[in-house]
């Protein structure tokens, strides 16, 4: 195995790998008659505008590279069906990781839509698995987090964000961004959200406010000139 292949078997996944695997897991449950998926179907599934966050514009080359990396991990294999003109692809993550259907549903939504609250997970897994209530979702999350077989750490509870009452849960297939793991910091003026990713946003907001202020100043001067 070359160096590139060895790098692909490390724990951290690329975003494209996560999106491709999420689509394979989703379509295996929601459209079994069209599964396994062709490369074209995978690209369409990765880039669909619903049930995806973020919405992407991955091309065939990017999806193919993700498939190669997942094949290196022994989690995807190619299916050459008799009479079929194109190759299709099927995941084997469920068997490799010994996941049950509720766990598959939760992990699929986390892979396709990012961090979610328990309530969001219950609502957004309906097409994959019908949880009876949020407690069953919470129990499923706890079961995933308490795994004693590899890979053990698949899901993590994130710190509660400022202004929110519920914590969100995220998969651990790739490093979490600073925004996802925003830390609540206490100060004399209240509660602040400490995150490297908030600085560019704050700068942008300041620029927007400055532009709006300048526009208001010009409108006020124009108004005064009429008297």
Question: Can you give keywords for this protein?
Answer:
7 strands; three-stranded antiparallel β-sheet; 11% strand; mainly alpha; two-stranded antiparallel sheet
Distance between the termini: 81 Å
- What about the largest sheet? 3 strands, antiparallel
Average pLDDT over all residues: 82
Q: Give the radius of gyration.
A: 22 Å
Residue windows where pLDDT falls under 50 for at least 5 positions: 1-10, 182-198
Number of separate strands = 7
Secondary structure class reads mainly alpha
Shape: globular
Series of secondary-structure elements, N-terminal to C-terminal: HHEHHEEHHHHEEEEH
Neighbour order of strands in the largest sheet: 1-3-2
Q: Helical proportion?
A: 40-55%
Helix count, per DSSP?
A: 9
Walk me through this protein's architecture:
This protein is mainly alpha-helical and 227 residues long. Helix content is 48%, strand content 11%. Strands 1-3-2 form a 3-stranded antiparallel sheet. The chain is globular, with a radius of gyration of 22 Å.
Short description:
The protein is built from nine helices and seven strands; from the N terminus they run H-H-E-H-H-E-E-H-H-H-H-E-E-E-E-H.
Fold topology:
Blueprint: H1 3-8, H2 15-30, E1 37-38, H3 39-47, H4 60-72, E2 76-79, E3 88-91, H5 93-97, H6 101-113, H7 118-124, H8 134-145, E4 155-157, E5 169-171, E6 183-187, E7 190-194, H9 198-224
Antiparallel strand pairs: 1-3, 2-3, 4-5, 6-7
Helix pairs in contact: 2-3, 2-4, 2-6, 7-8
């Amino acid at each position: 195995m070359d160096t590139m292949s060895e790098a692909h078997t490390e724990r951290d996944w690329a975003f494209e790998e996560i999106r491709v695997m999420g689509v394979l897991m989703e379509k295996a449950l929601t459209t079994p008659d069209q599964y396994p998926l062709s490369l074209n179907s995978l690209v369409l599934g990765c880039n669909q505008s619903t049930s995806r966050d973020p919405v992407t514009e991955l091309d065939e080359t990017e999806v193919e590279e993700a498939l190669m990396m997942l094949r290196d991990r022994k989690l995807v294999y190619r299916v050459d069906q008799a009479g079929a003109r194109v190759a299709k692809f099927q995941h084997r993550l469920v068997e490799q990781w010994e996941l049950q259907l509720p766990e598959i549903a939760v992990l699929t939504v986390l892979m396709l839509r990012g961090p979610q609250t328990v309530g969001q997970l219950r609502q957004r897994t309906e097409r994959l698995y019908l949880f009876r209530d949020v407690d069953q979702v919470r129990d499923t999350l706890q079961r995933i987090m308490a795994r004693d077989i590899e890979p053990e750490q698949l899901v993590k509870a994130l710190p509660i964000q400022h202004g929110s009452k519920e914590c969100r849960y995220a998969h651990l297939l790739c490093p979490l961004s600073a925004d996802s793991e925003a830390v609540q910091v206490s100060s004399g003026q209240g509660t602040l959200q400490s995150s490297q990713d908030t600085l560019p946003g704050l700068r942008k907001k300041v620029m927007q406010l400055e532009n709006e202020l300048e526009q208001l100043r010009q409108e006020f001067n124009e108004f005064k000139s009429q008297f």
